[in-house]
Amino acid sequence: MAQNPPNLRPDLAPKLQLREPTRDDQPKIGMVSLGCPKALVDSERILTRLRAEGYAISPDYAGAEAVIVNTCGFLDSAKAESLDAIGEALKENGKVIVTGCLGAEPDYIREHHPAILAVTGPHQYEQVLDAVHLAVPPSPDPFIDLLPATGVTLTPRHYSYLKISEGCNHKCKFCIIPDMRGLLASRPQKAVIREAEKLVEAGVRELLVISQDTSAYGTDWKDRPSKAPILDLARELGSLGAQKDLWVRLHYVYPYPHVRELIPLMADPANAILPYLDIPFQHAHPDTLKRMARPAAASRTLDEIRAWRSECPDITLRSTFIVGYPGETEAEFQHLLDWLDEAQLDRVGCFQYENVDGARSNALPDHVAAEVKQDRWDRFMEKAQAISEAKLAAKVGTTIQVIVDEVEDDGATCRTTSDAPEIDGNLFIDEGFEGLKAGDMVSVVVDEAGEYDLWGKPVA
User: Fold this and answer.
1) CATH number assigned to the domain covering 399-458
2) Which of 45, 105, 300, 379 has the smallest number of Cβ neighbours within 10 A?
C-alpha cells in the first residue's frame, strides 16, 4: 500500500489500466497517455474507436505494430517529458503517431523527432484514426469486436472521468491552453447525462466531472436555458444517485458567484454531488493575480469560503497555486502564506512557475530566481502540510464512508469523499479488509492520521 507523495504534480491523470480482451489475429496499437485527466478522456475516445474497428490495445510498446503518444504541453517540463516519451516510443517501436496538446506545435515536435509518422492536435480524433489506418490497416470482425455501451476505459471500473466541455475563455498570462484546445465548447447536457447514465449502469460508483472551466459550462450557448447551466447539470447528475450509492465529484470550478448555488446540493445527503470543490485559486495577492490576468478579489474569496462552510460544514476545498511567478515579491508570497492560514484549505497542490513557449508571462519583468522559487515552494508546502495534518488528526475517532480503490495482500487502499484519485490522500485499511474488493463503499472508523493519509478499520 503506497502512500501518495506530497510533491505529485497536481495535474496528472492516473496511470492507464487496460482490461480489453484480444484475439490472436488482431492488429495491436500501443498507447502512452501523458498529462491531465482531460487528456486521458481523449485517449479513451481514441481507443474506443480503434477497438470498434478491430484493433487490440496495449498500454505500452510490447508487441504493438504502432504507438500513439498522447502528449502534454502545459509546462515546459511537461513538454520535455512528452518529447522523451516520443523518443522512447521511437526507440522501442519505430512507428509513432503523436497527438494531444503538444501536437498543436507540429514543427517543434518534428524538429526533435523527424521520424514520427504523424502529428495531430488535441481532440482531433479523426486525424489520429486516419494516421493509424495508414500505419496499420484495420482488421475488424463484426461478430467479435463488440464494445460495451461505455466504450474503452483507462481507469478502474469503479470510477470514471466525465468531460463536460473543451477549451477555455480565460486569458491567464501563464497558460496556453486556449491556444492548444481552443475556446470554451460545452457538450450538450443530454449527451453528458446519457454518458453518465451508461457509466453508472456499467458499474461506475464515482463520476469525476472535468473540463478546463467547469463552472462556465454552457455559458457559450447562444440560447442557454439558464444563466448558469452548470447548476442544471449538477442537479441532474446529483439525482442519478437516488437509486444507488454514487459519488459525483466536481473538478476545476472557478469561484464565480453562482458557485454558491451548488453548495445546497453538496449539503444534501440524498444528493450524489460530493461536498468537494476543486478550485484553481493560483495565488492570493491582488497584484500577483493582476499580473496573471486572473480575478484579483482574494479577500472576497475568503468571504465566499466562509459562506460555503457555513452552509456545508463538511465541504472539502482543494486548490492549486503557483509560487515564484514573475514579479512575486517576498511580501506578496508572505501574503499568500497568511491567506492560506486563514483559508485553511483541505487539499493543496503547488507548482513552481515555469516559462511556457507562447505564454505572455514570459515577457514580464523581474523573473524569480530558481533557488528562490524552490525556497518558496518548500515553505508553501510546509504550511499546507501542517494544515492538512491538523485537519486529518481531527478525523481520528470519527466514522466516515470510503470507496475501495485496490485490495492487496497487506491491506486495502481507499479514498474518502475528500479525496480525488491520484491528487489527494488515501485511507488505508490493514485489518479486516479480506472481504473487500475494488469499488466497494464501506464505513470506516478512523484510528490514525498522517500528513496526507488516514488509517482505519471497517465498521463491524
Assistant:
1) 2.40.50.140
2) 300
Q: Across-strand partners of 416?
A: 402
Binding residues: 36, 72, 101, 168, 172, 175
Which residue in the block uniquely carries the three cell numbers 465566499? Answer: 304
Instruction: For residues 255-262, give the mean pLDDT.
Output: 92
Which residue blocks in 312-369 are alpha helix, DSSP H? 330-343
Q: What are phi and psi of 49, to 5 degrees?
A: -65, -45
Binding residue positions for [4Fe-4S] cluster = 36, 72, 101, 168, 172, 175
Helices (H), 22-124: 37-52, 76-92, 106-112
Rounded Cα gap, residues 320 and 381, in angstroms: 11
Which residues make up the CATH 2.40.50.140 domain(s) of the chain?
399-458
Could you tell me which of 54, 50, 47 has the C-alpha nearest to residue 25?
Answer: 54
Comparing CA positions, the residue from 349, 348, 347 lying closest to residue 419 is: 347
Reported pTM: 0.82
What 8-state DSSP symbol labels residue 54?
T
> What pLDDT shows up at residue 144?
45
> What φ, ψ does residue 121 adopt, rounded to 5°?
-85, -175
**What local confidence, expressed as pLDDT, does residue 225 receive?**
86
Q: At 20, is the pLDDT very low, low, confident or very high (cuts 50, 70, 90)?
A: low
Cα–Cα distances in angstroms (integers) from residue 325 to residues 173, 229, 291, 330, 409, in the given order: 11, 33, 9, 11, 45
Over residues 431-451, the pLDDT tens digits come to 999 999 999 999 999 999 999
Q: Residue with C-alpha cell 501536437? A: 103
Q: What are the beta bridge partners of residue 445?
A: 399, 457
